[in-house]
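Morning. Coffee machine broken again, so started the prediction first thing and wrote up yesterday's gels while waiting. Chain of 237 residues, entered below exactly as on the submission form.
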Amino acid sequence: MMLLIKLLAAHLIGDFFIQPKRWVIEKERKKLKSPKLYIHVLIHILLTAVVLWEVKLWPVPLIIGVSHFIIDALKLYYQKKKTKRLFFFIDQFLHLSVIVVCYYFFSNSVIEITNQDTETLIFFILCLAFLTTPASIIMKNIFMKWNISKLTKNNASLKDAGKYIGILERCLVFVFIVFGHWEAVGFLITAKSVFRFGDLKESKHRKLTEYILIGTLISFSIAITTGIIFNLFINHV
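Came back before lunch.
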């Protein structure tokens, strides 16, 4: 299982944490002519090699790198403005599928030297990391079809406030579920609803209310699902 955790960690770091938005924009504009595409693939190869740190697993970074290049290149050439959101999720699904395949084919070649507590801690950190920037990017792609600026054109807000509120609430929900305090999740949902109700009770804010409600439910759903996956993991290691 540790091999799978390492591969997932390398993917999260390479695709979400150290890939600037300007790289994504340049890749979409220049496609195969963009140097950032090749740097991005090279980063994935190096990250995978570093986290594995096992000579006998040398084919894995190559498989990850080559498949990543092919998947990204196909996405860049075939995605349109209207299908950008769909291709984002297809892209991530294919990358994760390659990781799972590598895990099943090469897991027998790895001698696990970590104990259960170490695996649990590393997976806990990985889950928390997923609930920060990666989950925010996933939600941004989900909401790509709606223009939030039109819904809030007369109401200024703090820069990136929604992003950080979402990160905090997902991390809190995850921690509550891991420690078995489901009632605290209900309290958090109620508290957020109370704070929002005063601002959104008028009919003219109906679209914004629906937008925030959908966002809240998706954010909590991601956190709850991650918490359940973590609990299933620790029950089977």
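The chain has a mean pLDDT of 83. Going to sketch it on the whiteboard this afternoon.
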